[in-house]
C-alpha cells in the first residue's frame, strides 16, 4: 500500500512544496494581542544575526491551534515550532532541545517552574519549549459603572458572593443587563473552583470532581439562572467550544469579567479610554482567593528537520534582553525568573500598567492546586467537559446533578482512551 | 397597446382579478424582501463604523460620529450634543473623558472648557461610509492570499472536473463494454455517501499522499463529481451515434472523436457543469477546513470562519470580508442567471 | 486554440496505440479510468479505512497503531437504558443529535417542499419579470454556507435588526439564537432560505412539462382551480416531487455547514446534528476519538442507505400506480 502511495505521490506532481528548506524553520503562532507581530520582528533580527537561517512566522487564529494543529501533528505534518496552550496534551510531539541549546542550566534556572508543564511525566527532565508569557486568571471590572452607580468597589479580601451582590447593584443602577461574565472555559472556571475548595485530584492522583468543584458549579448555574450572568456565553454555543465574553465586557453589557492577564493588550487596543477598566484581585472562597496560571509556550516539535536551528532560535528568544523586550512590547507577565526579578519597563498606558501590576501581585497568591491542574498532562479531560456539560445545564437541557455526573463520566472516558 | 397592457396584468382569471393573482403578487414581493433583504442589510452594515455597529436600535444607513478640528489638537475630536447645566443645548467637541465626567470645548472658541456628566451628552451623527473597513482588511489579514487560493482552487478544479467527467460520461454513453452499467451505478451510488462519514479516513488518505496543506489536496478529491457525470451522460446520449460512426470510417481515433466532435456538441451541458463546479468549489467549507491548516493556504470561506471567532468584537471587518466573499458569486449570478436556472431545470427532469 | 490542437495531437498518438491494443469497445475503460481512480482513492478507500477505524480504539491516527476493540465503539454508541430518552444514554450527545436530526429532516423537508411547490406554482404563471423572480429565489443557493450563516447571524443578534423591529413595536428583544426552540426554528428557516431555490427550479421544470391542453380541457369543463390542482397538477408532478423529497431528505440528514456557523450546536446541544457530533468527536475535541466518530459515521451511512432504498421503492410503486393521463 505504501509503495503505491509513493508512486501516486510522484505521479501527482506540482505544489507539494510546503516542506521547509534546510535552514528554514516555520513557526505557527497565534496572537492574544500582538505576540505574533512582535515575534516576526524579532525573527527578522535573528535572521540578520544568523544569515544561514530563515524563520517564517505563520499567524493563525487561536481556533486553528486548538483544533487543527493536533490533527496536523498526528498526521506527521505541521510546523517546527508552535505557540500552544494545551501544553500537556501535545507533549508527545515535543522535541527535547537540551542538546541544541547553549546552556541548559540557564533554562533550568530561569524557566524551572514552568518547564514541567511541557513534560510528559514527572521523571522526564527534558526541555521542550519556552513560555511566552505567564498568565494569571483574574477579573476585570468596569469602574466607570461603579462610579455612576455610586457603589464602592469591594476590597481585596471580598468573596465571590460579595462581588456578586455589588455588581448586581451596579448593574441595576446603571441599567446594564448583566453583572458578571466568565469566559466559556473550564480553565477559567478552575480558579474560582479552587477558591471554593476544589482539589481536582484524589489521594491516588487521579482526576476527580469534589465538593468544592460542585459548589462553584452550583454558583455558576444559579447565577446564570437568576440573570446575574449572561446565558449566551456559557449556553449560547455547543460542545466544548471556547468562547470568551470580551465582547460583552467591551460593550459595557456586563460589570465584571473573569478572564486573564493576556487580555490586557486587547483591552487597551479595543476599549482604550471608552470607560475605566481595572483588574481586581481574585475574589475569595472558603479555601483560597486564587486564579490559575497558564500561558502559551513556543514548543519545539519532533518532526522538525532542523533541530539545531530550532534550538538557536529558541535560545535567542529566551535570552534576557530579547525576552525583556518581548514582554515589554506584548504587555505580558514574564515567565523568565531573571527578567521578572529585574522587572520590565512597560511602555504602556497607565490603565494597562495598573492592571498588569494587579495581576503580577496575584502570582504569589496562586494556590498549589492551581499549578498542579495546569501542569497535568490531561487537564483537557476535565476542562472540556466542564464547559460542555455546565453549558447544557445552564440552558436547562439537563439538570445540574446530571451535568456533574456526566462530567465524571466524560473524564473517565477520555482518560481511558488516552491511556490505550 | 392594449395587448401589451394585457401582459402587464396577466392573470389567471378572464376579466376579474382572482385571489390567486393577489396572492401571487404578494408572495413574489415577500420573496424579494426575504431573499434579498438580509444580504442588503449585510452590505449596508459593512459600511458602518464600529461605533455605529454597536448602536441599538441600528439605523438603516451608515452613520458615523461627526468630528471637528480644534486648534491645538492633531486629530479631529468627536462632536457631541451637550445639555449644559444652564439648560441650553450646544454642539461641542470632546477633549477627554475621565470616569463619568467629560470635558468638552466649543471648536471655534476652545479656551472655555465645559465639564459635563457623560449622561448629558449624545453623539452627533452624519452620513459616513466607513470604507476603511474594506481597505484595512487587505492590509491586516492577507486577504489577497485568501482570494488567490479560492480562485486557484475554483478554476483548476473546474477545468479538471470538466475533463474527467466528460471523459467518463463519454465512455458511459457511447460505448458498450462489459461492466459499463456496474460502473455507472457505482459512480451514482457515491451520491448517497455524505462526505462527513469519510472525513477522518479521507484525511488519512490525503495526508499519506502528501497533499495535506496543499491546494491540490482540496482539488483532487473534489473533481469526480457524480452529478457532473450524470448530467453530461444525459446530454451525450442525445448525440447521434451516426456522427461518431462517420468519423470512425474516416479513420479518426476515439480520442479525436471525443475532442473534436463530442465535446463541442456537449458545450451547453459543459457550461452548466462549469457553473455548478465554480459555485461548489468557491463555497467549499468542510473539506478545506480539514485539509488546510496553514493560514497562507486558507480559502476565503475558511478565513471568514476562522476570523469570525476572533473578530466577535470587530464585526466591521467581518462584515466587509463577508461582502467581498459573496461578491464574485453575486456577479456570476447577475450575468449568468438565465443559464444557471435553465440548467438546473433541465437537470432536474430525469 | 492552436495550443489546444497541438495538445490534442500529442495525446492522440499514445491513445491511438492503446486503441489498437484494446479495441474500440474496451477503450471506454480508459476514458472512465481517471474518474474511477479519484473515486477509488477518495471515496471507496476511505470507506474501507472507516471500517478499520470503527473497530479499533485509542487515540492514534494511524489504524496500524490502534488496538483492535471489536464492536466496543458501537456498543458505546448504543448503550442506553431507554432509547427514547437521550439522557439515559452513555453517549447522550450522539442520541440527542440523532433526535435533532430526525426532527430537523422531517420538518425542514416538509416545509421546504411545500414552499418550493407554492413558489413554483406562482412562478409558473405569466407574470412580468418572471425571469427576475426566478433568480430572486435562487440567489441564496449560490451563497456559501458560511456567508449564509453570517448574514443571518447579523440579523438575529441580540442587537440585530430583527430585535430592532421588535423594540420599535414596543416589545422586548428576544435572544433568537440563545433560546433552544427559537435557535432550532432559525436553523430550519435559514436552511430552507438557503436551499429552496434549487428545488423550486426543479419543480418549475416539472410543472412546465405538463401539457397545457390538459388545463384547457379542464377549464372547458369548468373545473375549479383546486380540482385542477389535485387532479392534474399533483399526479403529473408526483415523480418530480419525489425526486425533490429524496434529494431534500438526503441533504437534510447531512446538515452541518450553515448551522454549525450559525449556532455551533447551541444552546447546549439543542441544534447539534449528527454530522456535527461526528466532526466534534473526530476533530474538534482535544482528545480525539476517531473510532467513535467512524462508528457514528457508519451508522449514519447505513441509515441513509435504508432511507434512500425505502424512498426509491415508494417511487416505483407510485409511478406504477399513476393513472394514464399523459398523451403519447
Helix- and strand-based class of chain B? alpha+beta
Query: How would you spell out the order of helices and strands of chain B?
Result: HHHEEEEEEEEHHHHHHHHHHHH
Q: Give a count of the beta strands of chain B, DSSP E runs of length 2 or more.
A: 8
| CATH homology-level superfamily of the largest domain in chain A | Periplasmic binding protein-like II
Work out the count of structural domains of chain A: 2
Radius of gyration of chain A: 22 Å
Low-confidence blocks of residues of chain B: none
N- to C-terminal distance of chain A = 26 Å
Silhouette of chain A: globular
Rounded mean pLDDT of chain B is 79
Q: Could you tell me which chain pair has the largest interface and how many residues each side has? A: B-C, 101 and 104 residues
Order of SSEs of chain A: HEHEHHEHEEHHEHHHHEHEEEHHHHHHH
Main sheet strand line-up of chain A = 2-1-3-10-4
β-sheet strand percentage of chain A: 5-15%
Number of domains of chain B: 3
Low-confidence stretches of chain A: 1-20
Q: Which structural class is indicated by helix and strand composition of chain A?
A: alpha/beta
Oligomer: heterotrimer
Instruction: Assign the CATH architecture of the largest domain in chain B.
Output: Orthogonal Bundle
Tell me what portion of residues of chain B adopts beta-strand conformation: 5-15%
Question: What's the architecture of the largest domain in chain A in CATH terms?
Answer: 3-Layer(aba) Sandwich
Amino acid at each position: 500500500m505504501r509503495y503505491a502511495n509513493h508512486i501516486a505521490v510522484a505521479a501527482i506532481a506540482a505544489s507539494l512544496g510546503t516542506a521547509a528548506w534546510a535552514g528554514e524553520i516555520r513557526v505557527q503562532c497565534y496572537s492574544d494581542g500582538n505576540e505574533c507581530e512582535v515575534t516576526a520582528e524579532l525573527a527578522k533580527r535573528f535572521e540578520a544575526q544568523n544569515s544561514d537561517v530563515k524563520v517564517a512566522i505563520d499567524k493563525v487564529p487561536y481556533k486553528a491551534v486548538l483544533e487543527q494543529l493536533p490533527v496536523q501533528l498526528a498526521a506527521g505534518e505541521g510546523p517546527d515550532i508552535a505557540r500552544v496552550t494545551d501544553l500537556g496534551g501535545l507533549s508527545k510531539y515535543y522535541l527535547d532541545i537540551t542538546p541544541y541549546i547553549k546552556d541548559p542550566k540557564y533554562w533550568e534556572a530561569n524557566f524551572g517552574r514552568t518547564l514541567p508543564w511541557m513534560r510528559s511525566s514527572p521523571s522526564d527532565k527534558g526541555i521542550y519549549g519556552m513560555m511566552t508569557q505567564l498568565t494569571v486568571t483574574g477579573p476585570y471590572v468596569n469602574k466607570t459603572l461603579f462610579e455612576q452607580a455610586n457603589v464602592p468597589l469591594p476590597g481585596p479580601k471580598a468573596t465571590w458572593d460579595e462581588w456578586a451582590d455589588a455588581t448586581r447593584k451596579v448593574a441595576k443602577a446603571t441599567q446594564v443587563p448583566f453583572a458578571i461574565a466568565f469566559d466559556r472555559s473550564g480553565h477559567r472556571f478552575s480558579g474560582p473552583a479552587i477558591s471554593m475548595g476544589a482539589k481536582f485530584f484524589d489521594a491516588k492522583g487521579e482526576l476527580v470532581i469534589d465538593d468544592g468543584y460542585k459548589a462553584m458549579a452550583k454558583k455558576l448555574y444559579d447565577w446564570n439562572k437568576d440573570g446575574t450572568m449572561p446565558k449566551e456565553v456559557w449556553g449560547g454555543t455547543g460542545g466544548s467550544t471556547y468562547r470568551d465574553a470580551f465582547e460583552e465586557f467591551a460593550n459595557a453589557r456586563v460589570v465584571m469579567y473573569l478572564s486573564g492577564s493576556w487580555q490586557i493588550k486587547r483591552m487597551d487596543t479595543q476599549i482604550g479610554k471608552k470607560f475605566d477598566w481595572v483588574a481586581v484581585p481574585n475574589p475569595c472562597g472558603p479555601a483560597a482567593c486564587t486564579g490559575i496560571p497558564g500561558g502559551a509556550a513556543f514548543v519545539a516539535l519532533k518532526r522538525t528537520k532542523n533541530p539545531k536551528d530550532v534550538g538557536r532560535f529558541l535560545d535567542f528568544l529566551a535570552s534576557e534582553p530579547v525576552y525583556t523586550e518581548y514582554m515589554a512590547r506584548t504587555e505580558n507577565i514574564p515567565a523568565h525568573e531573571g527578567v521578572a526579578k529585574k522587572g520590565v519597563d512597560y511602555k504602556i498606558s497607565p490603565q494597562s500598567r495598573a492592571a498588569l501590576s494587579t495581576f503580577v501581585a496575584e502570582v504569589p497568591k496562586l494556590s498549589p492546586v492551581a499549578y498542579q491542574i495546569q501542569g497535568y498532562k490531561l487537564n483537557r479531560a476535565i476542562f472540556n467537559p466542564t464547559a460542555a456539560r455546565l453549558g447544557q445545564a445552564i440552558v436547562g437541557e439537563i439538570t445540574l446533578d446530571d451535568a456533574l455526573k456526566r462530567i465524571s463520566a466524560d473524564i473517565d472516558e477520555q482518560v481511558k482512551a488516552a491511556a490505550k | 397597446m392594449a395587448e401589451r397592457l394585457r401582459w402587464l396584468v396577466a392573470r389567471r382569471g378572464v376579466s376579474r382579478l382572482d385571489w390567486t393573482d393577489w396572492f401571487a403578487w404578494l408572495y413574489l414581493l415577500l420573496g424579494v424582501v426575504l431573499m434579498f433583504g438580509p444580504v442588503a442589510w449585510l452590505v449596508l452594515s459593512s459600511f458602518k463604523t464600529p461605533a455605529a455597529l454597536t448602536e441599538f436600535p441600528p439605523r438603516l444607513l451608515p452613520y458615523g460620529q461627526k468630528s471637528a478640528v480644534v486648534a491645538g489638537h492633531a486629530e479631529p475630536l468627536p462632536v457631541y450634543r451637550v445639555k449644559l447645566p444652564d439648560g441650553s443645548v450646544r454642539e461641542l467637541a470632546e477633549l477627554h473623558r475621565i470616569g463619568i465626567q467629560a470635558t468638552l470645548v466649543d471648536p471655534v472658541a476652545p479656551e472655555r472648557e465645559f465639564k459635563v456628566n457623560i449622561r448629558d451628552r449624545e453623539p452627533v451623527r452624519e452620513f459616513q461610509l466607513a470604507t476603511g473597513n474594506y481597505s484595512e482588511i487587505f492590509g491586516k489579514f492577507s486577504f489577497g492570499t485568501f482570494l488567490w487560493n479560492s480562485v486557484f482552487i475554483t478554476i483548476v478544479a473546474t477545468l479538471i472536473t470538466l475533463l474527467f467527467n466528460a471523459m467518463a460520461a463519454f465512455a458511459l454513453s457511447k460505448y458498450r463494454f462489459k461492466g459499463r452499467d456496474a460502473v455507472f451505478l457505482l459512480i451514482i451510488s457515491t451520491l448517497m455517501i455524505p462526505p462527513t462519514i469519510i472525513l477522518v479516513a479521507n484525511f488519512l488518505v490525503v495526508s499519506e499522499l502528501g497533499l495535506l496543506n496543499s491546494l491540490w489536496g482540496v482539488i483532487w478529491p473534489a473533481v469526480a463529481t457524480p452529478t457532473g457525470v450524470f448530467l453530461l451522460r444525459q446530454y451525450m446520449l442525445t448525440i447521434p451515434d451516426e456522427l461518431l460512426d462517420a468519423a470512425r470510417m474516416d479513420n479518426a481515433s476515439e480520442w479525436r472523436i471525443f475532442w473534436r466532435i463530442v465535446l463541442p456538441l456537449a458545450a451547453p451541458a459543459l457550461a452548466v457543469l462549469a457553473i455548478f463546479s465554480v459555485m461548489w468549489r468557491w463555497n467549499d467549507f468542510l473539506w478545506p477546513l480539514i485539509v488546510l491548516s496553514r493560514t497562507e493556504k486558507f480559502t476565503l470561506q475558511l478565513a471568514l470562519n476562522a476570523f469570525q471567532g476572533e473578530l466577535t468584537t470587530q464585526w466591521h471587518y467581518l462584515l466587509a470580508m463577508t461582502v467581498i466573499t459573496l461578491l464574485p458569486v453575486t456577479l456570476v449570478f447577475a450575468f449568468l442567471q438565465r443559464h444557471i436556472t435553465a440548467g438546473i431545470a433541465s437537470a432536474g427532469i430525469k | 486554440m492552436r495550443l489546444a490542437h497541438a495538445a490534442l495531437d500529442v495525446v492522440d498518438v499514445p491513445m491511438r496505440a492503446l486503441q489498437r491494443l484494446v479495441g474500440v469497445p474496451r477503450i471506454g475503460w480508459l476514458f472512465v479510468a481517471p474518474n474511477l481512480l479519484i473515486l477509488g482513492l477518495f471515496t471507496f478507500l476511505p470507506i474501507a479505512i472507516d471500517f478499520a477505524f470503527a473497530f479499533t480504539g485509542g487515540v492514534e491516527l494511524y489504524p496500524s497503531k490502534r488496538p483492535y476493540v471489536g464492536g466496543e465503539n458501537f456498543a458505546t454508541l448504543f448503550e442506553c437504558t431507554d432509547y427514547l430518552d437521550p439522557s439515559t444514554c452513555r453517549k447522550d450527545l450522539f442520541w440527542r443529535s440523532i433526535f435533532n436530526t430526525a426532527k430537523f429532516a422531517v420538518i425542514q423537508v416538509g416545509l421546504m417542499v411545500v414552499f418550493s411547490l407554492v413558489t413554483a406554482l406562482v412562478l409558473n404563471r405569466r407574470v412580468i419579470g418572471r425571469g427576475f423572480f426566478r433568480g430572486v429565489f435562487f440567489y441564496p443557493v449560490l451563497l456559501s454556507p458560511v456567508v449564509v450563516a453570517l448574514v443571518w447571524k447579523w440579523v438575529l443578534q441580540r442587537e440585530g435588526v430583527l430585535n430592532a423591529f421588535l423594540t420599535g413595536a414596543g416589545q422586548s428583544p428576544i435572544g433568537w439564537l440563545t433560546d433552544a426552540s427559537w435557535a432550532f426554528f432559525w436553523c430550519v428557516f435559514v436552511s430552507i432560505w438557503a436551499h429552496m431555490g434549487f428545488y423550486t427550479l426543479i419543480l418549475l421544470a416539472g410543472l412546465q412539462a405538463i401539457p397545457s391542453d390538459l388545463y384547457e380541457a379542464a377549464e372547458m369543463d369548468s373545473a375549479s382551480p383546486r380540482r385542477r390542482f389535485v387532479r392534474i397538477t399533483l399526479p403529473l408532478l408526483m415523480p418530480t416531487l419525489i425526486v425533490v423529497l429524496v434529494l431534500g431528505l438526503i441533504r437534510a440528514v447531512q446538515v452541518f455547514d450553515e448551522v454549525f456557523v450559525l449556532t455551533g450546536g447551541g444552546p447546549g446541544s439543542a441544534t447539534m446534528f449528527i454530522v456535527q457530533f461526528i466532526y466534534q468527536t473526530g476533530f474538534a475535541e482535544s482528545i480525539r476519538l476517531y473510532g467513535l466518530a467512524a462508528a457514528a459515521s457508519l451508522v449514519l451511512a447505513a441509515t441513509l442507505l435504508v432511507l434512500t432504498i425505502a424512498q426509491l421503492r415508494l417511487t416505483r410503486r407510485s409511478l406504477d400506480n399513476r393513472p394514464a393521463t399523459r398523451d403519447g
